[in-house]
Amino acid sequence: MTDPEFSRIIDIRHIEAKPQTFTATPEECAALAKRFGLVKVQSLSATLTLARESAAVVANGRLSAAIVQSCAVSAEDLPVIINEPLALRFVPEATLVFSPDEEVELSEEVLDEIPYSGERFDLGEELAQSLALAIDPFAVGPDAEKVRAAGLFGDKPSGPFAALAALKKQDD
User: Fold this and answer.
1) Which of 43-47, 58-62, 77-81, 138-142 comes out lowest in average pLDDT?
2) Long-range contacts of 2-8 (CB under 8 A, 24+ apart)
3) What is the pTM of this model?
4) pLDDT value of position 142
5) How many beta carbons lie within 10 A of that of residue 61, not counting itself?
């Protein structure tokens, strides 16, 4: 496994319940843009309050980012501002006891838990993953309709369903 592009190691023994800001450097932003297939990550930061709850650590706050992604239709550069609330819960790996072959139904609380081992976890990687989840993969810019109207996608339907429709017409 490669090293994360945006790593911020937190030692659970030194957590203070006060707001902290975690900001990506320009180099980390460039690496995240490459990882997520973005034109650019201009900025990424999160202001979080970390608090211990027994062996667990909760992080609450906001994730802020300025990115440039490609329009899903026209491929033009599309600037996007992300401002999302965050609620992360880190739990010791030992508390999540599931066999790999066991089918389990997870409760709502367990779905948001991020396991860690030892006394440290990488908050930066979780922030990077939160950024990835906040990106709209089908974002369209103002020129998207012009591209559609110009017929740049072709007049004939394409794809697997178009192929099936063509086969059906042959049978008729």
Assistant:
1) 138-142
2) 4/122, 4/124, 4/125, 4/128, 5/31, 5/32, 5/35, 5/128, 6/31, 6/32, 6/44, 6/124, 6/125, 6/127, 6/128, 7/122, 7/124, 7/125, 8/122, 8/123, 8/124, 8/127
3) 0.75
4) 76
5) 19
Rounded CA-CA distance 73/93 in Å is: 42
Q: Which two tokens stand for residue 25?
A: 């450097």
The DSSP string of 84-139 is EEEEEEEEEGGG----TT------HHHHTEEEE-TTEEEHHHHHHHHHHHHS-TT-
Facing residues of 114 across strands?
90
- Give the chain's end-to-end CA distance (angstroms, integer): 54
Please answer whether residues 70 and 87 qualify as being in contact, where contact means their C-beta atoms are separated by less than 8 angstroms: no
Position of tokens 């697997």?
160
Q: Residue 161 and residue 42: Cα distance in Å, rounded?
A: 39
Q: Would you kindly state where each structural domain of the chain is located, as residue ranges? A: 9-171
Confidence of residue 141 (pLDDT cuts 50, 70, 90): confident
